[in-house]
Amino acid sequence: MAGHHRQDPLTAAELRPALPSAKLRFTLTDELDGAQEWLGQDRAVDAIRMSAMVPHEDFHVFVLGQPGSGRHAIAQSILAGIAKDRPVACDWVYVNNFEMPHKPVAIQLPPGSASRLRKMMETLVDDLANQIPALFESEDYQTRRRTIEEDFSAEHEREMSEIFDDARARNVAILRTPVGFSFAGHRDGNVLTQEEFEALTDEERDALEEAIESVQQRISDVLKSVPKQEKAHRRQVEQLNYQLAARGVDEAIREVQDAYAAEPEVQTYLKAVRNDLVENAELFLMGDSEDSAGPFPVATSKRFKEPQFQRYRVNVMVSNGSGCSGAAVVKEELPTMANLIGRIEYASEMGALITNFTMIKPGALHRANGGYLVLDVRQVLSEPLAWDTLKRCLRTGEISIYSPGERLSLVSTVSLEPDPVPLSVRVVLIGERLHYYLLSALDPDFLQLFKLEADFDDHLRLEESGAVEGYAQLIARLARRAGTRPLDQPAVESVMRESMRLTGDAGRLTLNFSRLSDLLREAEFWAGSGGSAHIGPQHIERAVAEKERRAGRVRELGLETIQLGTVMIDTDGARIGQINAMSVLQIGDYSFGKPSRLTARTRPGTGKLVDIERETELGGPIHSKGMLILQGYLAATYATRAPLSLWASLVFEQSYGGVEGDSASAAELIALLSSLAEVPLDQSFAITGSVNQFGDIQAIGGVNQKIEGFFDVCDGRGLTGRQGVLIPAANVRNLTLRQRVVDAVEAGRFRIFPMTSVTDGLTVLTGLEAGVRGADGAYPEGSLNRRVEDRLQAFADIRKSFAKEAGGDAQ
């Protein structure tokens, strides 16, 4: 067991950290430029920079840290600084696929040229809407059309005229009737009657019938050839129309072709547009615009908006035109599947859902292509299919647009299959450490894609070079960003002290910008209420006190139950096997200390320590571990010559919730030793600390709240000067106590003792020396350890005697 250590209480100066004020050489924060952009985050910043600049794929970065640490703002600031020196990303458009309309074509364009192409195509359609009708109304076209019509009519008339002449020569009359042609004999200008026909000789009659049949056959042949002639006629007309439309389209489209002469994909598209325009020139002759006063639209009509011309429109997905400098930095606040990869919209038309390439909408990956995409991992993981979709795009290096319904095979609606867009983007995923570790363990793709982690520190070590000055700059920047009054130097020191309090360590300052900004804004309110021109330390202290007051209802109820005696806590006198332990309760983001009575009872037994909390399933695994450590300590320290013949029970009195942690193990051990030695413990004290098997006292958490919790109980009953707490010596560097406690210690009305071993705690609480084994292996007579060992030996004797009387082992 460790020997004797310091028994003096801590001084008031040791309870609250002293700041190196000499390093704060300013009067108001207005004098500071606030240049510390990412104080204390060099490790994370370097990782983000590397991810942003490394040319290799899959070097995406996961930014991990606590909320409020400025992860989003810092990451975006770094990316913006790097992105402005990177080349501007290309434009992307979707255009119609005239051969397979359900597979729109994606075209990559130089930055800023997508909108220009869209405008030129709209102008092209509008120009043709005026030019093509004019071409078809021109005198040249009408003349050539008439020539074709006349040639067709003349050829038909010539054939029929020959047949009529031949018929007359062969005495055959051709008569037109409502149902077609009829034939009869003819003589001397008159049609033969039936009697006249029968009066002919057989030779004349046979010759006439043969002539009629021949004429009839010739007319039938001519009439059968009419459809073929009409088809040829139509072909001539179509050829004329095609030539005329081609001339007009070629003239109109040449400007677009020249403007994009260096873009092969655009040239291929324009060739398809040209062919479709020529083949469908009649679309421009459908003059039914509401703006039209005649059969054709006026020159001011925006014909490109009409449904029949949608096929020639250009759907701009990404346009990095004027105003764009450098690569894009996109932060998607709602990373749904559609918002990441884009979506295909539908319109209802007569009860049916229709769509086309103009209804393809871009996603965040399209906008960030060639640059950086910032996402919050919690939001991505909470959206159905979003995480899987993001990974697929990063793995394949392309953006394929599809709907959740298609992905899950829930719909069978005919949809579009747009060309995938090649993807080159660096993703910055921001989340908490838990997210990073869970994804690393559960998703085999995660570490393959996100090869870099940017781990944001929660704290800044005060001992680092320039930490104090840099933190003052940080406070100045936060104040400026929050729009508050400037802070004077003492106020900055108060903020730093509260910052240490938030870390629970007097040697560290919090880097939780959100908490600091909230504190400054609340102090601004109190400074404004008091009409102060700047924020002083009193405003910081007021903001802190008011925040604790707002959250302190449960804490005050707990204090009230103690003062009324409902919850029994002694703050004076002495009792055997009873001690005041200290715990911390967390409600929301507010934590406070609460003392608890811990009691121990002992009797002869088989070496079993009964943890009532564990037996009733109110104790957590760490608390149970602490109990087993106590058992090991007792056996190794006292049961060296005889078996540990002890039965002991330990319990937190009036505890109706769970107990977890080992910070009460020192209190449990001392209560147990008090019961064994039958030595009373001073109830003026409370104790916290965990113990190991060698009796060393180990550091615990929440030391400030624990001390203040017991102090408030004592203060409510009246401070006597004897009251105090015992804490691990390792926690002294964590002390950032409230001024009320510091003032009481300075006035000698409250005491705080550090402990390095159980011996220190026993000496303070019992007034007895613990004692150290001498050369003979025994503890000094009258020492506390001697009493414990003698009692355990007595238990062993009782157990041995009982075993002999019972004829077996005592149970």
Please give a structural write-up.
Residues 198-225 form a coiled coil. This is endopeptidase La. Pfam families: AAA_32, LonB_AAA-LID, LonC_helical. The protein has 811 residues and is α/β, with parallel strands linked by helices. The chain folds into four domains: 18-35 and 460-551, Orthogonal Bundle (Helicase, Ruva Protein, domain 3); 41-87 and 326-456, 3-Layer(aba) Sandwich (Rossmann fold), CATH 3.40.50.300; 91-321, no CATH class; 557-769 and 787-805, Ribosomal Protein S5, domain 2. Helices cover 45% and strands 16% of the residues. It has 26 helices and 30 strands. It has a seven-stranded mixed sheet, with helices on both faces. The two termini are 30 Å apart.
Query: Would you count the extended β strands for me?
Result: 30
Q: What does the largest sheet look like?
A: 7 strands, mixed
- CATH fold assignment of the largest domain: Ribosomal Protein S5, domain 2
Percentage of residues in DSSP E strands: 15-25%
Low-confidence stretches: 288-300
Q: State the distance separating the first and last CA atoms.
A: 30 Å
Instruction: Compute the average pLDDT.
Output: 84
Strand order of the largest sheet: 23-24-22-21-26-29-30
Classification by helices and strands: alpha/beta
Q: What is the overall silhouette?
A: elongated
Number of helices: 26
CATH class of the largest domain: Alpha Beta
Query: Which second-level CATH architecture of the largest domain applies?
Result: 2-Layer Sandwich
How many domains in all? Answer: 4
Percent helix range: 40-55%
Rg over alpha carbons: 49 Å
